[in-house]
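Checklist before submission:
- one chain only
- standard amino acids only
- sequence pasted in full

Submission:
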Amino acid sequence: MRRSRFQGLLNVVRFNYDMYVKAGLVLVLAYLIPWPRPLLPLVGLGCLGATYFLLASLLVSHYVYDLSDLYGWGWLEKRFPRPDRLVNIHSGFDETTEQLKQVFPHCEIETLDFYDPELMTEPSIERARATYPAKFGRSVKSHELPLADGAEPLICCLLAAHELRSHTDKVAFLGEVARSLHPEGHFVMIEHMRDPANFLAFGPGFVHFFSRSTWLRALSDAGLSVREEFALTPFLRGFVCRATSQS
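Returned file contents:
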């Protein structure tokens, strides 16, 4: 399935439209309210900042999800040119399995979805699931992956692991990944970081992501060692890992 030119940007707006509508209404009200003159500089500065973050989030989303190599898959093909089998794990929104089947037509791809409606209550996820109904894979528990011990050569989790908000849940999931990896297997994770670049792009929304140190601690505690880190864009970071006992 070929992605449209603005698919990533449109998805961000579609899944988070309430946030953009609320922000727009606040800006309109701020413009209409007759503020006392001493407050005008502060109100103007606040409106300028809000406008910046609205526009920046849209521009960066278009860059990351439409213009970068994230969904071009060159970064994955370069590291794993001809995988025989790949496990693709997501958290309720899967727009990658069909693409991966085209990139690796001779690869056996198994898709697992650890979406938990009791824990992942954000409306954006519900909208994403409604827009992209699951075509592949099965629902699983993040702490009980139905994968055999030491069997998987390649496991990928793209922009999904941050939905596991607690350190305990992260380690439980990543520990299952470590358990399932073949002695020569690799785990690939792509995430936004809670860092200055993502703050400049998404403003306060960057707290939905986690810092590099948080991920490194979770990976280590789960028994995974990082063999390679790479910046897919200034806003995305990739981790290629092996099980600690195998590295």
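Reviewer check: The radius of gyration is 20 Å.
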